[in-house]
Amino acid sequence: MTSSDDPTDQRGWIRRPDMSEDFAANPVELFFDLAFVFAFAQLVSHLVHHPDTEGMLQAALLFWMLWLPWTQFTWAANAVSAHARNVQFILLIATVASVPMAAALGTALEDGGWLFAGSVVVILSMGLVLMVMASPVGSPEWKSAILYAIPNAIAMVMFLVGAAISDKGTRVGIWVVAILIIAYGTIKAGRGDWVVRAGHFAERHALIIIIALGEIIVAIAVPVLDALSDDAGLPAETTASLIFAGLFAALLWWAYFDRPQKVLEHRLEELEGPARPQFARDVYTYMHSLIVGGVIMSAAALEEITLHPKDELPLEFRVMLLIGLGMFFGAVELSALRAFHVVPPERGLAIVALTVLLLVGGSLAGIWLLVAIDVLILLTLAFEARRIEHPHETARPPEAEVS
After folding, report:
1. Quick one: 187 and 246 in the same domain?
2. Average pLDDT along the chain
């Protein structure tokens, strides 16, 4: 929220719509998102080929270097609206930069560091340009943008410095510090004034989750392409694994879009003053990163299952799937806690049950493990829906209350 209500509020050549105006995402924002399909696919490939602890930590680092420019543009376009041609031009520049960023992701910790980090810096810079120019000089919103831009500028220099260092450990260390500096900047800037249009903000995060869920579809298509290229047709177990992997993606969609997406947007609309941008930062910038990251980790494990449906799923991929689902459901739990000070009990119990299943289910073939996971998630969502939609059926009788 801001203190400036001039409907023609404009600085230079970037116009900011009236504070009361909300709008849908522009096609150029969807185009920008689609560039991240390639990047997410690269992350899944990295996880499949490096399923150990080091590989997962590296994937987490690279994911955050992708998430930062994406979320920065979401905040910027939320203030100025991507329906303006000059804003679209900046978004298109960022989209062009995202292609080499995604292409270099697989070698970011090796000889592709310059291309990856340089592309990230270009996109971050474009986002900062929009943020700073979206508000009149000296306004509370402009001061908030400057306060946020300073640590970002330091972090961008560190990204480039890290890329110039050939030692992988040192590069990783410098990039981690840079990310922490930006995280500190979001906390510091959260005390200021920001424009947050609830409908647009919630829609942008819903769209990036759809992009991530689409990566599951891409991942499970790999065995199909392999089988067809060998003219071997599709074995029955591969067909079944594809069906249950598709059901898995559908259940994750339902777990977010059926209820949490709507109620979180409604809660954001209710808030006023500094509480609104702080809620948007906590629930969307932070917690939604865990939701998206969890989907990507799950996609890597599902690719392994669909490639080898009759084999036992290796421990490292079971751990990866557990972490991914834990991030997904845990982030929704934390969002509900932040929004309404309640924790949905079914999802917490599901995390516990999934932990037991994935850690002790090593003897199960991958396809049967996936079936069990689908059933568990389905039951979780069914019991949650019954509790919320039919509370009288789950309430205890009067005599039980007395006892």
Report:
1. no
2. 87
At residue 197, the 3 state secondary structure works out as coil
First-to-last alpha carbon distance for the chain, in angstroms, is 49
Return the C-alpha torsion angle 367, 371, 372, 376, nearest 10.
150
Q: Which domain holds residue 88?
A: 23-195
The answer to the question of residue 207 being in a domain is no
Alpha helices in 282-344, H assignment, sequence order: 288-307, 315-340
Q: Which residue has the tokens 């829609």?
A: 203
Shared domain check, 330 and 189: no
- Measuring CA to CA, which residue among 65, 76, 121 is closest to residue 97? 121
Do both 58 and 156 map to the same domain?
yes
Q: Is residue 121 part of a domain?
A: yes
Predicted pLDDT at 329: 95
For residue 24, give Cα distances in angstroms to 19, 20, 109. Answer: 15, 14, 37
In this structure, the answer to whether residues 174 and 99 fall within a common structural domain is yes
Spans of the chain, pLDDT less than 50: 1-12, 395-403
Give dist(CA 322, CA 311) in Å, integer: 18
In a shared domain, residues 332 and 271? yes
pLDDT for residue 26: 85
**Long-range interactions of 341-345: CB distance < 8 A, separation 24+:** 344/384
